[in-house]
Inverse folding.
């Protein structure tokens, strides 16, 4: 059945994939280090999907006259790259989750900046120290291939909580991003730790059980949604926007907001000793403006940090969700240790 589903949906999924792997803005992975100090270009490292990043870069260039050279990699790869370039960075702006900024600030890899645009952002999503500049809110979710679930379970109710997901029907049928490489995967792991209220033993016991369900770990956060869309896997861990995109492309994806749902603040930071600091500041201000914020919601399908921006179509209102008490500072501080434990524990 998997082969049949894959063949039937390959053409439509290929359209999504081709959009995602196109060249970004005016730069590629090989050319990201070429930003100069003349103010004519800004180099942006981002884990944002490539097509939205390209569209944002082009819109900023049209309005400002400043070219944006984009390097798109997973969050883990970008953090490693930033650390490797310490003292001689190629990037001016780096996209990250708010929890990643603490360790980067301590290592003097990013710098503080007071954004004027932050005056129009909900205070809950503003860093009082000025290191991270919020652009979107991202939910960690599960996607289920509705047709396969119906056929293989006889229409049984789809699990709606994290604990309900630990069932034999999902053994080997879950795909998730590698938490040591992907911000999506790490958000899932941190969510389990936070929802167990500091009981790390209980959190790891749950992760032991969940790991038994995983048939594949992917390098990127966006891959599971596509593998579930084609029916190669029955369920997958993903950010909400990736699942909304494949569902809206016509795939039979059932969105599950496991209770309590993890939510992270994603945005950007200014790189210390960057080639074009003034251009980076202008880009940060623009990204937090209303027009760019609406573009991000429309293109990425994430939740906005501004009250004057519309929600993505088909998304649940945050007030209707049971959200975990996600601590971004602790998430950043424990990321290295948690990732190392995960890799050692599960051999990835």
């Amino acid at each position: 059945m998997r082969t049949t589903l894959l063949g039937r949906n390959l053409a439509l999924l290929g359209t999504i994939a081709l959009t995602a792997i196109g060249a970004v803005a005016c730069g590629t992975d090989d050319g990201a280090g070429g930003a100069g100090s003349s103010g004519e270009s800004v180099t942006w490292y981002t884990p944002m999907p490539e097509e939205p990043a390209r569209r944002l870069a082009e819109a900023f260039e049209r309005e400002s006259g400043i070219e944006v050279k984009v390097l798109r990699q997973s969050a883990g790869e970008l953090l490693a790259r930033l650390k490797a370039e310490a003292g001689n960075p190629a990037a001016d702006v780096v996209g990250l989750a708010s929890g990643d900024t603490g360790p980067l600030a301590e290592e003097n890899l990013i710098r503080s900046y007071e954004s004027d645009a932050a005056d129009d952002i909900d205070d809950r999503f503003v860093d009082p120290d000025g290191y991270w500049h919020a652009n979107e809110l991202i939910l960690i979710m599960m996607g289920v291939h509705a047709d396969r679930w119906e056929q293989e379970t006889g229409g049984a109710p789809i699990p709606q909580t994290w604990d309900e997901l630990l069932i034999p029907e999902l053994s080997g049928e879950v795909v998730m991003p590698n938490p040591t490489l992907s911000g999506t995967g790490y958000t899932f792991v941190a969510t389990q730790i936070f929802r167990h209220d500091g009981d790390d033993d209980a959190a790891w016991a749950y992760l032991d059980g969940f790991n038994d369900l995983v048939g594949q770990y992917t390098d990127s956060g966006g891959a599971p949604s596509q593998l579930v869309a084609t029916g190669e896997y029955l369920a997958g861990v993903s950010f909400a926007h990736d699942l909304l995109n494949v569902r809206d492309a016509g795939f039979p994806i059932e969105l599950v907001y496991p209770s309590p749902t993890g939510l992270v603040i994603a945005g950007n930071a200014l790189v210390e000793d960057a080639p074009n600091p003034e251009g980076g500041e202008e880009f940060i201000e623009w990204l937090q403006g209303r027009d760019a914020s609406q573009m991000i919601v429309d293109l990425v399908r994430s939740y906005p940090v501004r009250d004057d921006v519309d929600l993505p179509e088909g998304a649940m209102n945050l007030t209707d969700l049971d959200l975990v008490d996600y601590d971004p500072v602790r998430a950043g501080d424990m990321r290295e240790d948690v990732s190392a434990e995960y890799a050692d524990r599960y051999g990835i």
Notes: Confidence is low (pLDDT under 50) at residues 1-39. The first strand starts at residue 41 and ends at 46.
